[in-house]
Amino acid sequence: MPGTRPSDIRTTAPSVPAAPVSPAPDAPNRRRLALVLAGIMLASLNMRAALAGVSPLLGEIGDDFGLSATVRSLVTTVPLIFMGLASPLAPRMARRWGTDPVLLGALVLLGGGILLRVAPPMVALFAGGALVGSGIALLNVLMPGLVKRDFPDRAAGMTALYTTAMIGGATASAAAAVPLENALGGWRGSLASWALLAGLAALVWLPQALLARRAPRHLPRPAAAATAAAPLRLARSALAWQVTLFMGLQSMLAYVAIAWMPTIFTDHGMSKGTAGLVFAFSTLTQMAGSFVVPLLAGRMRRQRLLAVVVSLLLASGTVGLLLAPVAGAWLWAALIGVGQGGTVGLALTMMVLRTSDAHTAARLSGMAQTWGYLLAAAGPLTLGAVHQATGDWNLPIVLMLAVCGALALLGLGAGRDRRIGTPTEQPA
């Protein structure tokens, strides 16, 4: 332009081209994500291992302390109760201290609970179970939000991955329970050995927790304010309650199997070792459902058909337990295993798919797992009491079938193509 010097043009020109985005900052971010991924996998291995290893040893634990069938069921029920009670604390603790430090603390708490559970007094068995349940609750609640935060474009795949790792830990724990009991001199050594896995996971999370404490919080204030308003929306949301109850009923069926499946087989004449292997096979087949179903769910706008299919698999295996528990044990274990893996994978995936952001996902996870695990805690205790009152497993198995039917109905609601808080979702 006339009267304008070249230096003026340079000083007033936009500076964006002179400062392109450098690939250098992506390298630390990739390293951080790799560390998070390793931490997620190791933490996931711990999310059922400390519980699944109890079931094959429940007879020895009960004989050691002289427990009745109903009281024995409390060994697996107490951790579930505290999983429900501790779940609401997880989002609050994450807002105050950060997700990564809270996950580290959860693993330390879990390891401490595992060790306390094997102390000689009987009260330590239940006190340790309470700590185990609390530590697992924090891991369970924060994991969907963590996936939504760090892997937003791969949420379904990451959910499939960590759910499969969680079930893999349960499989290894169930399969190794009796061999470890024989090798380590009793059930206490078998249960205590899983504290090593929790310790390893804590070591991997330690650097990430320290980095998170030094770095600025990743949640901006407007998002935090929105999070504070989230409980009211969730409590008024029919969709949130459908996801919550779907989570609760699938958890109830899963922990009934953890508590009583080996006992059902041994009560019908199967040896303890074989019953443990069948139960381990059932948890192994869960990995197929937990990996495939979230991947399919992520590619579907609606997950209603998936919910019905996995519920029918559970129901088919449960009918088998009623008609021919020993003769078809391996087939029933496979059907129940694939169904359970599919339902837990679908429940966790729906927490991500039915929400719009990481904060709502964490809140929904807290709500679903609070009420879900309190509901699930009633399962092993109720079926144990009914079994003790009737003297056989027929009525308890019929009750499990009724739960399978309710699970399918809830899946029809939770699997709709809607998101919590959007105009298309009507309040409850």
Topology:
Layout: H1 6-12, H2 26-52, H3 58-65, H4 69-86, H5 89-97, H6 99-117, H7 122-150, H8 155-184, H9 187-192, H10 195-214, H11 221-235, H12 238-267, H13 272-298, H14 304-323, H15 329-353, H16 358-390, H17 394-414
Instruction: Say what oligomer this is.
Output: single chain
Helix fraction, binned, reads over 70%
Rounded to an integer in angstroms, the radius of gyration calculated over CA atoms is 24 Å
Average residue pLDDT: 83
Straight-line N-to-C gap: 65 Å
Estimate what percentage of residues fall within beta strands.
under 5%
Descriptive notes:
The protein has 428 residues and is mainly alpha-helical. It has a single domain, classed as MFS general substrate transporter like domains (Growth Hormone, Chain: A, Up-down Bundle). It has 17 helices and no strands. Helix 8 runs antiparallel to helix 13, helix 12 runs antiparallel to helix 15 and helix 12 runs parallel beside helix 16.
